[in-house]
Structures are given as C-alpha cells and as structure tokens.
Amino acid sequence: xxxxxxxxxxxxxxxxxxxxxxxxxxxxxxxxxxxxxxxxxxxxxxxxxxxxxxxxxxxxxxxxxxxxxxxxxxxxxxxxxxxxxxxxxxxxxxxxxxxxxxxxxxxxxxxxxxxxxxxxxxxxxxxxxxxxxxxxxxxxxxxxxxxxxxxxxxxxxxxxxxxxxxxxxxxxxxxxxxxxxxxxxxxxxxxxxxxxxxxxxxxxxxxxxxxxxxxxxxxxxxxxxxxxxxxxxxxxxxxxxxxxxxxxxxxxxxxxxxxxxxxxxxxxxxxxxxxxxxxxxxxxxxxxxxxxxxxxxxxxxxxxxxxxxxxxxxxxxxxxxxxxxxxxxxxxxxxxxxxxxxxxxxxx
Length: 348
Prior knowledge:
The protein is mostly helical. The protein has helices at 12-26, 34-52, 59-63, 66-81, 86-104, 113-136, 144-147, 164-179, 186-205, 209-213, 215-236, 244-262, 270-278, 300-311, 319-330; strands at 289-291, 296-298. It has a two-stranded antiparallel ribbon.
C-alpha cells in the first residue's frame, strides 16, 4: 500500500517518515541507528509541520495521502520510541486533518491506491484511539460514528485482528464504563450492559470467510474476541481475576498466544496479552502452562514475560514498555485501577 508512493516524485515527506520509523525499529537491536533515526524523524516532522501549518493550506495538501500516512509513521515512531504522551499529538492532528479531507474528497478518490492509503491511515488512528482508551478511559477522539459508517464492511480487518463491528463494541464498552456514574440509574446501566452483552455475543459468533480460509487469522480473531469478553466482564460487571469465567478465559488466551508465537506470528497479540496479564489471578498462578518436553510447569507471570521476550523483533509494538507496565501492575500497584495512560504500549 505504501510502496506505490515510492515510485512517484514528490513523496519525500512520506519516505522520510518511513525511513525514520525503520531506523528506530532497527535501533532496538542495533543502538548505532538511534541518532540516525532521530535526525530522520526531525526532518519528517519539520516537513510535515511546514505543510499543515501553512496559513494558506490548499486542497491539494489536504487531499495528499502522504500527509496522513506520514502522521501514521511518526505516531508509530513515538510509540516505539518512548510510548509516552507524544504519540497522542499525531492522533489528535490526524482526526482534524481527516475531517477536513472528508469534506473535500471525491467518492472516486477513495477507490484509488492513494485513497486506500489515506483510508488505512485513518483506520489506524481510529483503532489506536479505541484500543488506547481501554487503558486510559479518556474521552474519544474518533467518535462511534466512524465505526458505524455504511461503507464499513463486516469482514475481518486482518491488520486490526477484528471487524469494525467488534471495534464498535470495544468503543461502547469503554464509553459505558466511562459514563456509568453520570446521570444514569443502576437500572438503566444494567439494561445497557445486557444490550451490549447481546451485541458482543452476536459479533463474536460471526465467522467470516477470511477466518474460515486462514487458520492463523481465525486464531488471532478468536483471541481478540476472548480478550474483549474478559474486558467486558471485568469493566462492566466488576468481575476480577478470581472470577471463574475470567480465570478460564485468561488461561485460554495465554495458551493461544503461546501457540501463535511458536509459529512466528505476533501481529495483533499485544492487546490480548496485556488484558490476560492484568487479569491473572495472583493466588492461582503457579501451574498455568505445562512444558511437555521438560515435564515442568510455568506460572502465568513467567509465561507472560517469556512471551514478551519472544515478541521482540516480531512486532512493531513497544514490548519493553509493555513489560515494564505489566511488572509494575504485578507488584500490586493499580492492579484494578483504570485511568492510567497505558494505551500507548499498543500497536496494531
């Protein structure tokens, strides 16, 4: 999707952002690339700001697909670099930029290769917003209407690891939890929880053609469905790691992730792994996974940490930051507290 732009003149901005992100990713295993990555990011960021901060931004700039794509790669860079608040700047800027783009874009432009790149960039930011809010609980930047657009199919998006319908459910779970204490009686809240439970069950039961044809995709999608179920019960029904249903689902998620990692597949696994790690029962965590060859057992905590180590080099996610957050939570700090900014560890 990005490659065609490299064959056209005038795409220096996107090229710089791709090279910057690539250099930063390389620097994880080869620190000598760190300074090069910083220089490339600086050039890409300067070029981007010059284009979008110009007092006379033209329609050509707004419709240029390399602008949102550049924002996406710079956002990926910041997540991989520090995983702090800086990636959110790109998220907020992208929402405003894409809103202006939709006002100007012609229907035919959406079907072009360049239009597809812009649409992918928008979906990246919208989904990043959804996933990050499962941890921080902030107000949404991309609203629910994005996921309910009539042009969104119900097919699985292999990059997200779920369908737009499931992304919509995740959005609703987070939003209901965020607003449950605002002008809502307990009865009204319980009715909405039941409605959302039915919607989650319906979406989870849908098996698409993509899932039926590709075993790895099916397993990744099933993982996302299971982790959303854990998230739903813990956030809206006040379940905890000792709840039998949660405990069983957590073990299922960890075993499935281990199997996929053994096959060299790590795409889209960080959210399920993070959810499972947060909801591990510390009082029943000794023998979750059996090493068949060695005849020994691994605790859930050991399995999570070994899985994170195995994911280095297989994913674009900030694995080290994820590990640090999980270790902090496993020490008993904020295990049940929602509202801390952990969302920046995710990349999908």
